[in-house]
Amino acid sequence: MQVHIELKKVVDDSYDITIDKLPKIYFDTKVAVVTNPTVSALHLDYLLSNISAKELHVVTLKDGEEYKNQESIDAILDSLFEHRFNRKSMLIAFGGGVIGDMTGFAASIYQRGIDFIQIPTTLLSQVDASVGGKTGMNNKYGKNLVGAFHQPKAVYIDPSFLTTLPKREFAAGVAEIVKMAVTFNKEFFEFLESADLSDAKVLQDVIKQAVETKANVVAEDEKERGLRAALNYGHTFGHVIENETKYKEFLHGEAVAIGMVMANETAVKMNLMSEKEALRVKALLEKYDLPTHYEISDVNTFYETFFLDKKSSDSAITFILPLGIGDVVITDKVDRGTVMCVLNKFGKDK
Amino acid sequence: MQVHIELKKVVDDSYDITIDKLPKIYFDTKVAVVTNPTVSALHLDYLLSNISAKELHVVTLKDGEEYKNQESIDAILDSLFEHRFNRKSMLIAFGGGVIGDMTGFAASIYQRGIDFIQIPTTLLSQVDASVGGKTGMNNKYGKNLVGAFHQPKAVYIDPSFLTTLPKREFAAGVAEIVKMAVTFNKEFFEFLESADLSDAKVLQDVIKQAVETKANVVAEDEKERGLRAALNYGHTFGHVIENETKYKEFLHGEAVAIGMVMANETAVKMNLMSEKEALRVKALLEKYDLPTHYEISDVNTFYETFFLDKKSSDSAITFILPLGIGDVVITDKVDRGTVMCVLNKFGKDK
């Protein structure tokens, strides 16, 4: 005896990303702004002067990746419960990727899901975290291992927030932009080679192109079953570097920059990419003072650490390797010898 | 400058509910069975003899609604991380509604969502929790306040599990069946009036009809934006009763039984339902020894407690009132006087 539960339906999670000076935003619901002390000190007054809501609360979490945990999620949820938020209430993520991911995750599980919008204040979160709907938190087993896919209702990217962003963090954002260009958009890559990001109009345009590039990928593969995995270019190696340095030495984008260089070396070794193209990517990263070298103290340990990465299946590591600039292959068919050869180039004795 | 993120798509969360002796089930992935000591002692061997998997782990949570909390969710997640479950791994909820809700919630957030199947062992979870995709846990603010909508890949209802179910729990399941009949299915109600649930074939058929009735509602309104709220018939009052008795005196289904009687009294008072129909519902509940009376110690406190319920918006309480048997109205236009008049009938001095 069987009953078929028919739940095939059209879901529309579409939304708009506005890249401009923050507009006035009106809500006829309760709203909670989730932020951290750093962003709050610099920009909260500006934000609040643009928001009108039925009731407005601010939840301030500690600043830093090390607080991207259950305690911070609970702090958000507790505030919503204390202020009796209901299913129509709204969250606003106001900060970088950590704030965005946690706010989105809290929104996804509060009363089985409420709406949220993103107002990202770092270049990285503007170009990366604002598209894709990935939300989550870290735990003792690793980064982003608990979370949900939950799309924002809207994203407001105001590039003027970037004027207060430390130079290193700005560059870390550029690394992810370069990543999108190398993997999917050759014209964009060439544009970046000659672009002057200190020009506000150019910067706005670059953010737009990065967002569009990522949006095209996510639209085709929201839940990362195929194509979207290509955005992990640089991350297979980068995650190991972050892991080995306990997330203290490099910003995420910096580790990804080195990871891209390592991936390129692998691609060159496998004749997927020319040496000249690999050098162009490296030169673009160096233009923004991004690190492109990391001294591996033990290549075997480095290799083993690949298998801690959740994106790896039980027996094979997935590599994202450029096919020149603007195209990419996702493969778990890279033999250990090839990888070790690349790792040895970064080894201690070299 | 604006970028439109187009995420309109067809999602197919359809699945089958098998109501029969548990078949042999084969998985080519890692599987974790989540259960509790009570169910485990009675039925785990039987379950395991029917399951074949690449790797099989059992997570045993403490038994009871009071353990439907973050600690239990963490216990599930920890086990998955320890055994390196990946995105293709599978959870099996093996127990009642508490196990089902928590397993589904853990599945929804582990690595941003993995699959799970339900093998419910109580009548309540077989007819209620197995359809609808509601998952979650309790916290200090109330029941099911944190969670997600996450549909199972399949549900296997084996009525033979019910032979070991305590009589009170069986009756509590019948209460939810009566609820579905009164709200949506008059023929089913009439069938129940003359049905003998001790007959295995009849029981199987009743489970099927209950599941179908709920499935029709959920298919139309998965996220409870309208129609589905009608399944909260009996719950507006029932939740307050559970709250007042600290979830100790009544099983959920028992509180809902009393809640339905209270809702019916309200409907009779408002001329939506005849007194005779209200008596038929009461008689059917009493046929299964379900409680139909609760002595309210303070009617004003009882009324105020409605507003703690998350399903209530800020200013109005939503009531689900039968329009006779087999139809229902969802309304927040019941004046305080009418409700107080009904509550007084259950008041201490009566």
TrEMBL record, chains A, B:
Keyword list, A-Z: Amino-acid biosynthesis, Aromatic amino acid biosynthesis, Cobalt, Cytoplasm, Lyase, Metal-binding, NAD, Nucleotide-binding, Zinc
Residue ranges constituting the 3-dehydroquinate synthase N-terminal domain according to the UniProt record: 59-171
Molecular-function annotations in GO: 3-dehydroquinate synthase activity; metal ion binding; nucleotide binding
Cofactor note: Binds 1 divalent metal cation per subunit. Can use either Co(2+) or Zn(2+).
EC number(s) on file: 4.2.3.4
Subcellular location: Cytoplasm
Cofactor: Zn(2+); NAD(+); Co(2+)
Reactions catalysed according to its record: 7-phospho-2-dehydro-3-deoxy-D-arabino-heptonate = 3-dehydroquinate + phosphate
3-dehydroquinate synthase C-terminal domain segment(s): 173-312
SUPFAM superfamilies in the cross-refs: Dehydroquinate synthase-like
Any single biological process term in GO: amino acid biosynthetic process
Pathway in which the depicted protein is active: Metabolic intermediate biosynthesis; chorismate biosynthesis; chorismate from D-erythrose 4-phosphate and phosphoenolpyruvate: step 2/7
Gene Ontology CC annotations of this record: cytoplasm
Binding annotation for NAD(+): 63-68, 97-101, 121-122, 134, 143, 161-164
Any Pfam family matching the protein: DHQS_C
Keyword Amino-acid biosynthesis: yes
Entry-linked CDD domains: DHQS (cd08195)
Record: residues binding Zn(2+): E176, H235, H252
HAMAP family associated with the record: DHQ_synthase
Function: Catalyzes the conversion of 3-deoxy-D-arabino-heptulosonate 7-phosphate (DAHP) to dehydroquinate (DHQ).
Family classification: Belongs to the sugar phosphate cyclases superfamily. Dehydroquinate synthase family.
Name under which the protein is recorded: 3-dehydroquinate synthase
Organism: Sulfurimonas crateris
